[in-house]
Amino acid sequence: MAHAIRFKETGGPEVLRWEEVVVGDPGPGQVRIRHHAVGLNFADTYFRTGLYPAPLPAGLGVEAAGVIEAVGEGVTGFSEGDRVTYTGSPLGAYSTERVMPVGSLIKLPDGIAFETAAAMTMRGLTSSYLLRRIHPLEEGDTILLTAAAGGVGLIVCQWAKLLGLNVIGTVSTEEKAELARAHGCDHVIHYRSENVAERVRELTDGAGVPVVFDSVGKTTYASSLASLRRRGLLVCFGTASGPVPPIDAMQLAVQGSLFVTRPALADYIADPAERAELAGELFDHVGSGRIDIKVNQRYALEDAAQAHRDLEAGRTTGSSVFVL
């Protein structure tokens, strides 16, 4: 019998339930996948708490890797036995197997393990569009990256070095600082004991940085704005501490004609050709060893509630996966 994590009401980790489910056969345009590994992402907590609305009852999770067991009518480009990974709607990745639309699937090269794929598909594609689509960064540019020791942070640090960028990263502990440095972060700021904007100005001879990649949100957006150089760009791509408060447009002018964007991965992988291009570059870096994916936490899927507690308490580093 197949199993899945589901929730009937929004709330804390305790609302998550391990249940038997009936999967069935794929319909037109669908496949049935048996998962080998499932990704754990901070965005999963947003659905659980209701920050991201979802019809209830609901499954959870948007990222996993496994093998196609059955193919529905009209599916082209994928066959039974194909190794695949995916990130994106619909919810339901927290499951041993599932039926889902073929549109989100990406073929997984043989040289990349299922756990690696589940740990990096969302984070890696996010890193890809941040560095390759958001802003025309040039070799020698300096960027500020919040949560530099997180799953996205460690990938961005490594990829940024491949592009010749200088990385200033923020962290909460010395353990995380060492991890960030080991992955290419040039300068580390302990945000709990240092003034981030002041340190950024010191490190950039008073100029500030052209781009800040901020995945924390509510508690960091003000210091992120203050770290930008004139006409700089704040990229708010996550809200780990809560949603970014309303931004006064006049303050953007006063602080140096600044720009702010709140991108979503879905809009950068909606086009199949662009998704394939971003994924191809990611898989090439990972497959060659130029980017190392750290799976630092592994959980059984039925322990999803504890995994969420660890994630929200900041007890994780790098990527976390559920192993089936």
From TrEMBL:
A GO MF label: NADPH binding
Ranges for domain Enoyl reductase (ER): 11-322
One of the record's GO cellular component terms: cytosol
Source organism superkingdom: Bacteria
CDD domains per UniProt: QOR2
Gene3D superfamilies (alphabetical): Medium-chain alcohol dehydrogenases, catalytic domain, NAD(P)-binding Rossmann-like Domain
Keywords, alphabetical: NADP, Oxidoreductase
Protein name, as recorded: Quinone oxidoreductase
Organism, as annotated: Streptomyces populi
Lineage, broadest ranks: Bacteria, Bacillati, Actinomycetota, Actinomycetes, Kitasatosporales
